[in-house]
Amino acid sequence: MNRRNFIASAGLGLIAAASPISISALGEPTRPTAKSGCLNLSFFPYELKLRHAFNLARYSRTTTPDVQVQLEYDGVIGYGEASMPPYLGESVESVTKFLSSLDLQQFTDPFRIDDILTYVDNVAPNNRAAKASIDIALHDLLGKLMGQPWYKIWGYNPDKTPNTSFTIGIDTEEVVRQKVEEARPYKVIKVKMGLDKDQETINIINEMMPDVPLCVDVNQGWTSKEHALEMCHWLKDRNCIFVEQPFDKEMIDETAWLRERSPLPIIADEAFQRLPDILRFQGVYDGINIKLMKSTGLYEAHKMVTLAKSLGMKVMIGCMTETSCAVTAAANLSPVVDFADLDGNLLIANDRFDGMTVENGKITLHDIPGLGITPIPGK
Ligand code: MG
Question: Which of 291, 284, 224 is nearest to 260 (CA)?
Fold first, then answer.
């Protein structure tokens, strides 16, 4: 069954996925009927097509598996999604299995967000992107029911949103030059590092955009702490403002050693997943990169921002390759973070939503209830 038929057969998207539910040979769930006065869940796989091959220190890819989610309550629909870049260990199969195991029809009050998300979190360990998809859809639904966008509900000033960085991957000189041209409207550039072309890439960007601040993401690619320290000093003289995940996530002692000596802040990404990690990372990293697919969504991400800031740590909000649904969800937190890397929707060719926009490099939130997204007709 294709996606259009899937929604049509479920009655305008009001599909329930209560337990028990079976998975067809194609991996698509069968569904009981939607019920009024409770939460009705539906979902379908949606492969994200990347505009350019995405080359990181440890792998390269042209698509990202994704599952799109809807939570319906009395005719109002909240949208969510799970994006599964391979290194996180989730897949369409694991997300579909997790979502199929949920019984959300037991909840008749969608505002019991703590009860609902605690239940979801306790169904099985891990499954962070799958859990995030429910959290994001629930936030969209609740914001719509309240008639307000989440940045307003949290009391954040939308004028304080940061500039978002635009990511340039590891590539040939020709492609790097082409991507720097594409990045011209942005005020911050994020550079992927960790292979032997590191300095070459920085030199090209410095030459083409001499004043733009650079964020460097090593994606665990460096192995020697002496080399890393040398690179941090070299990068400091070339407009770099921080270094993200320099070493393998298990190299805690080496990271603490580097942090003590580095002239640039060291930010945790792959090493950092959930709220309790923040306490472990005091003295190891200067800051954290929060992503909804790691944090299990907005509910915990909001707590992370508060805890990390209270401990004097830097906070960055990032994303995976995602549609504007999850990226806009994260953007609602951006008025209170130090750095934002919310370009995941710009890296895909088949977005399903209009959401936050980037105006002159700055994240721009729109006064639309819920996450602030609108489905694109026909997508
Ligand atoms: Mg990163």
Answer: 284
